[in-house]
Amino acid sequence: MPNSCCSAHRCEKVSCPGCAWRYALHVSRRILACEPQRLHALSVERALAGPHEIDRLRRSAHNAVAYQRRRYRGWRSVGVWGWYGDADFHGIVELGSISTAEFVHTFRRRGEVRLRPIEIENLRTEVYTAALSVSATPAVGGKGRYQPLKVAIEPVATTRKRPVPVIDDVMVEAMPVLV
């Protein structure tokens, strides 16, 4: 089995820079599909005592965002994509219409939260850096590539009302219903 990756053979290991760069492309495309407006690099220091607590972090982060979404509509546009590495948690946050202070206030119980604004052009490199933090962490349960160490909370898609169609500058009215 060859040691290096090529287009015919991908090792898909967390520690492989080529596979991690390819994975960063897929994740960044998924983030861009949500049409982000305010992206930040997220770092939570001392988030967990060890990799065995990643499920607790995943549940608590999801519950915190879900609770805030029920309380305040602005949280529906918030998305969190992150990876656990060593004792820290690194990732990307789409803040939408909330402030950085609101996000830090919600996640302060999980450790020391740091947010740094990033440009959309640098998204892939930021995802790559965050995903490579996983490489030093032993696999949890020995299954999966990034999945056991990943948290993904995507923004809620909102449906927009379609406007009344206009044909040749004449508004088309709805047909009346006869009862």
3D architecture notes:
The chain is of the alpha+beta class and 179 residues long. The protein is built from four helices and seven strands; from the N terminus they run αβαββαβαβββ. The strands form two sheets. Strands 4-1-3-2-5 form a five-stranded antiparallel beta sheet, sandwiched between helices. The protein has a two-stranded antiparallel sheet with strand order 6-7. It is globular and about 65 Å long.
In short:
This protein is α+β, with helices and mostly antiparallel strands. The chain has helices at 17-32, 54-71, 100-107, 123-132; strands spanning 39-45, 79-85, 88-94, 112-117, 150-153, 166-167, 170-171. The longest helix has 18 residues, at 54-71.
Give the key terms.
179 residues, 4 helices, alpha+beta, 5-stranded antiparallel beta sheet
Overall spatial form? globular
Q: Which class best fits the helix and strand makeup?
A: alpha+beta
Q: Strand order across the biggest sheet?
A: 4-1-3-2-5
Radius of gyration: 21 Å
Q: What percentage of residues falls in helices of 4 or more residues? A: 25-40%
Instruction: Report the average pLDDT across residues.
Output: 79
Strand content: 15-25%
**Low-pLDDT regions:** none
Instruction: Specify the number of helices.
Output: 4
Topology, pairings included?
Layout: H1 17-32, E1 39-45, H2 54-71, E2 79-85, E3 88-94, H3 100-107, E4 112-117, H4 123-132, E5 150-153, E6 166-167, E7 170-171
Antiparallel strand pairs: 1-3, 1-4, 2-3, 2-5, 6-7
